[in-house]
Amino acid sequence: MKKHLLPILLFLISLGSSAQEKVNFSEKFKKANQGKYKVEINEVKELLHIMIAITNSGKENDDMIQQEGQYYKDLRSHFKPYENEKIIKTFDSLMVASPYNYIFLTGNAISYNFKGNKLIKSDVFDFPAMGVANMKIDENPITRYKKEIEAFAKKAKFKKFYADHKQFYAGIISDYDKKANLGKQWKWLENNFETKKDSYIIFCSPLVNGLNYTGQFTNNNFTLIHMNLPPVDNFPNLTPLENELFNTRVMFTEIDHNYVHAPTQANKELINQVFAQRKTWVNEEADGTFAYPDPVKVFNEYMTFGVFLLYCQDHYDPSTLDKVTNDVIAVMTERGFPKMKIFTENLFKIRSAHPNEKIDKWYPEFLQQFVDKK
């Protein structure tokens, strides 16, 4: 259950930046996807997850790679003879150079599709992952290593492995439809924020563990939210309600980044003032806090988990809300965000004062509470 302790939730820099988005939403694509969401275990993306999983970096990091379960055992057995291939060593060197290369490799995998044993450029996604935090790239790594990836997939019989696990993948997708409540979350967020989105896609992999990320693509007056998430969980030691809350939190705290973003940007100057003292808000000794290098990113991480608690307030009884609130405070504190308790108290207070207003509207007043208490 390590993923709930040390998640690294990252925005792609392409979020909301038309200069960096490399996608093509045709009228046909828009019509097919408007108002809809889907869950997908993308073939090329799964190949990249597998290739990273068998690098030395992947084998040593059970927060990045889910190493429990039969699927991981099947993977290690099938791909063990190919762990020393040159392209695997290359990917390992990229992971050693920067963990953000995990995003660049897996995030850009959707820019290609398999046609037989060849990778064919996607008509929709051209260069979907160009930047993470303060790091940018100017070449799609899938394009750069296309021939090597094709050769590895053929030599390692990846397509057979993928086909042999199709039923397993279908079960993961079915579990999302039954247990994750994406439609309910989407509706609540659009009722409570001014932001509106056109479509959602969840890119899932059985190998994703703690490293989840989200972003949005905007093109031709159409906005698609993408989330990169692990399968939903069903821990036998938790009750059905506890499992529901856990799975909802993993997804919700990715989705709501895309709604928190706009009001945060509108109030960036005040956020920079309130969260200027980094050591007050961040325990830099905690793993993963490097992904939040400035006040805005720190605030957004507090806020995305805080908004999840507002969602719970509207959907669960007070006793459940109290338990979830305490759990979130504990998780956030362990992750390196020690002020979650006071943040949560101020959040519930401002929501109580403005129960029927969009969250965007009371952002300035909410932030002012922290100034007044100094």
Model description:
By secondary structure, the chain is α/β, with parallel strands linked by helices. The chain has two domains: 2-172, no CATH class; 256-374, no CATH class. It has helices spanning 27-33, 43-53, 56-60, 70-79, 86-97, 101-108, 141-144, 146-155, 158-164, 166-179, 182-192, 240-255, 257-266, 268-274, 278-281, 295-315, 318-335, 340-353, 359-372, and strands spanning 10-11, 37-40, 112-115, 118-121, 131-132, 135-136, 199-204, 213-219, 222-229. A five-stranded mixed beta sheet has the order 1-8-9-7-2, covered by helices on one side. A two-stranded antiparallel ribbon has the order 3-4. The protein has a two-stranded antiparallel ribbon with strand order 5-6. A hairpin with a 2-residue loop joins strand 8 and strand 9 (222-229). Helix 16 (295-315) crosses helix 18 (340-353). It is globular. Residues 1-19 have low confidence and may be disordered.
Write the layout of secondary structure elements.
Elements: E1 10-11, H1 27-33, E2 37-40, H2 43-53, H3 56-60, H4 70-79, H5 86-97, H6 101-108, E3 112-115, E4 118-121, E5 131-132, E6 135-136, H7 141-144, H8 146-155, H9 158-164, H10 166-179, H11 182-192, E7 199-204, E8 213-219, E9 222-229, H12 240-255, H13 257-266, H14 268-274, H15 278-281, H16 295-315, H17 318-335, H18 340-353, H19 359-372
Parallel strand pairs: 1-8, 2-7, 7-9
Antiparallel strand pairs: 3-4, 5-6, 8-9
